[in-house]
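Late entry, BIS(adenosine)-5'-pentaphosphate complex.
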Amino acid sequence: MILILLGAPGAGKGTQAENLVKQFNLQHLSTGDLLRSAVADGTELGKTAREYMDAGKLLPDDIILGIIKDYMQQNRDSGLLFDGFPRTVAQAEGLSELLEGRDVQALSIKVDDNAVIKRLSARRSCRNCGKVYNPVLGIMPAGANCECGGEIYQRDDDRAETIAKRLEVYHELTEPVIDFYRAMGKLLEADGSGTPVEVFEGIREVLV
Ligand code: AP5
Ligand code: MG
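Prediction complete; structure with ligand written out below:
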């Protein structure tokens, strides 16, 4: 199965993906995490990605679909969890062409914009492994660094003006992807407004 997590920035896609990959034995591909690694490694992809990410804009569809095509070829036999992809209708159509008969299920995690702004302003991440922390939720490592030893930092795109741009892009370009999967009869929806544990319970109820 290919499970697609949809939802606004800060909806909790990454947080819930950690639970879902364990529960359903899936390989997790977060396009955002992959692009942040490329930025950290200073690759050509990373240099391009940085410009778009810092501006809160989406990378071009052909770049993202190229990454997904390679990943799917390398993981033909595994269940996959896509987090942050597809983000435009063109990406969703591109994915449909790559499926080769594989079943797909989309899950939309719903939260309002005010919750997103609060969550993203508070989020801290590990620069090395990408693990997400949140002092407001009391989710922080015991010491000053991540449990992997990496530096804890605030993502550049979690500044107020970039959060606003990401939300605008989400409403304009990514919300139509929800309708795309609804029209295919492949959409499940879960309330993302409770605590992370409550949200996961809600997801399990709709998924099983
Ligand atoms: P990406 O990394 O995918 O960012 P995003 O979609 O904006 O989502 P986030 O990672 O910010 O939020 P999340 O839903 O994962 O929430 P999280 O669990 O961390 O993409 C970044 C950029 O890369 C894009 O802007 C774009 O430029 C580019 N990009 C990526 N994919 C692309 C694509 N397909 N096409 C083109 N460009 C692409 O939670 C957020 C915070 O809230 C955390 O602190 C967490 O602890 C907390 N939290 C989580 N759940 C709860 C809860 N239930 N209650 C309270 N707090 C909670
Ligand atoms: Mg994420």
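The beta strands are 2-6, 27-30, 80-83, 104-110, 124-126, 132-133, 152-153, 187-191. Will revisit in the morning.
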